Amino acid sequence: MDVSSWTLAQRMRLPDWCFGNRDLLMLSLGVWTGGGFGWVIGAEALPQQICIWQMGVVIRRNESADNYFRLGMRATIPTTEAHMNDSTPLFPKWGNINYTPPRITLPAETDQVWFFNTRNGIDTGGLKFVGEIWGDDCAAMAQVNIVYSELPTSMAGWLAHHKV
């Protein structure tokens, strides 16, 4: 049965096994000696609608100065903070809300590993993942790994008779 005309919310209610193969996207963000900004963009445009299943972040820092990173979606690599502000946020409500737009502040510890299981449907518009990292007078690095898949466009006919 064709479900491509269903809304994002309706397709996200389908069972996990209806979704396609899961792909891994890795972004490496880095700021080196002296601090400042660093930007990165994913190699491929994303499908129109995706489900993010997992996200892992590995953070390495040399000092306990202020640092943060942000994730978003854009067609081109951002080259200024204003460009990143114009990006579509990947997780709009995730991060330190004292900043506009919110950003993930990096804790003072030297190394950290974060891992999130999620089931988050996103309308990407065919854009690419982008990332920004900022370091205040020190080196900082974040490796972001995102596991995602396309949303289903069809499903087994017998499943269509159950309320989704």
Residues in helix, %: under 10%
| Separate helix tally | 3
Instruction: Look at the structure and give the mean pLDDT.
Output: 83
Give the biggest sheet: 5 strands, antiparallel
Describe what this molecule looks like in 3D.
The structure is a single chain. With 164 residues, the protein is mainly beta. It has one domain (21-155): Jelly Rolls, CATH 2.60.120. 9% of the residues lie in helices and 45% in strands. The chain has 3 helices and 9 strands; from the N terminus they run αββββαβββββα. The protein has helices at residues 8-12, 81-85, 157-160, and strands spanning 23-31, 35-41, 49-61, 67-74, 88-89, 104-105, 111-123, 128-136, 140-150. The strands form 2 sheets. Strands 2, 4, 5, 6 and 8 form a 5-stranded antiparallel β-sheet that branches.
Topology:
Blueprint: H1 8-12, E1 23-31, E2 35-41, E3 49-61, E4 67-74, H2 81-85, E5 88-89, E6 104-105, E7 111-123, E8 128-136, E9 140-150, H3 157-160
Antiparallel strand pairs: 1-9, 2-8, 3-7, 3-9, 4-5, 4-6, 4-8
Descriptive key words:
164 residues; mainly beta; Jelly Rolls; five-stranded antiparallel β-sheet; 45% strand; elongated
